[in-house]
Amino acid sequence: MNLLSLFSYFSNDLGIDLGTANTLVYVKNKGIVVNEPSIVAINTITNRIEAVGQEAKEMLGKTPGTIVAIKPMKDGVIADFDATEEMLKYFIRKAHQRNHLISPRIVICIPSEITQVEKRAVRESALRARASEVFLVQEAMAAAIGVGLPITEPSGNMIVDIGGGTTDVAVISLSGIVYSRCVRTAGNEMDAAIIQSIKRKYNLLIGERTAERIKHEIGCALVDTPASMEIKGRNLIEGVPKTVKITNEDILEALGDSIATIVETVRVALERTPPELSADLVDKGIVLTGGGALLHNLDKRLHQETGLPVFLAEEPLFSVAHGVGKMLDNMSLLRRVSL
């Protein structure tokens, strides 16, 4: 092993998929080492961080008045600067097994329509969390690299990345984004729609975690076979806990607006794509990635609405993180695609 490869083996470079719902950290030569919810629990009296990640998620909706579990990322951007910084420090330390001496080069993925102020906030948070150099890459670009699309070639590649806070739609050619659109309709809005719908239809109040479970178990964009599940919540009229049986038809109705927004965003992207690249999409189709892409039958619904082939990425939750890994192994590609 020569000195250069020895240096790269002990390299501490890492990539962060800083998501609204989950944060993933990829360390060079190790792969994904952190996959935890983007949640921070703070003691309101002492202002101390009580827990971060999975431990903080367990506290959601169950904390005493002195502890609040907050999501510092909203719609893919930093809503709470200090909490994000603490969360980044925690994840970076965890990725490096608490080694405080390391100052890594960090690649952070961000939504496409992020403002200059928001970009600066992300960059400064990472620098304050001990990064030696920070590269910002658009999430859609990282996801396209992660799923193995030939982004350096002169042909059109379309990716739809549905995360927790945002849905990013991008058409990529020659290592650049030809068209991109980011809408703040994604996993979290779907959860909120389920909560509202069940409240209206059954007078039952459920929490975020229950809504997420419903979405995963019986949520769909098209109903092919009937499915149902029992859920527990609080009856709004009597004020007592109650169990109700709901169907996938109920959830399709609840998610109608969110799905329609995503479909419309894809349609607009197809209309705005230059004709030469549109021709490539007829054969290559659309690649779906991100946690929201796992919504049952969303690929079929998009195929029905656009007439194009729609493919679900192999590991949609990890596409961005895998893309970051490939960029860390290819610094010239990283410099070409970073903002």
Describe the structure in your own words.
With 339 residues, the chain is an alpha+beta fold. The protein has helices spanning 3-9, 54-59, 81-95, 116-128, 139-146, 187-202, 208-218, 248-254, 256-272, 275-284, 298-306, 319-328, 331-337, and strands at 14-18, 22-27, 31-37, 40-43, 49-52, 67-70, 73-74, 77-78, 105-110, 133-138, 157-162, 167-173, 176-183, 204-205, 228-235, 241-247, 286-289, 310-312. The protein has a 5-stranded mixed β-sheet with strand order 3-2-1-9-10, sandwiched between helices. Strands 13-12-11-17-18 form a 5-stranded mixed β-sheet, with helices on both faces.
Question: Which helices and strands appear, and what pairs or packs with what?
Answer:
Blueprint: H1 3-9, E1 14-18, E2 22-27, E3 31-37, E4 40-43, E5 49-52, H2 54-59, E6 67-70, E7 73-74, E8 77-78, H3 81-95, E9 105-110, H4 116-128, E10 133-138, H5 139-146, E11 157-162, E12 167-173, E13 176-183, H6 187-202, E14 204-205, H7 208-218, E15 228-235, E16 241-247, H8 248-254, H9 256-272, H10 275-284, E17 286-289, H11 298-306, E18 310-312, H12 319-328, H13 331-337
Parallel strand pairs: 1-9, 9-10, 11-17, 17-18
Antiparallel strand pairs: 1-2, 2-3, 4-5, 4-6, 7-8, 11-12, 12-13, 14-15, 15-16
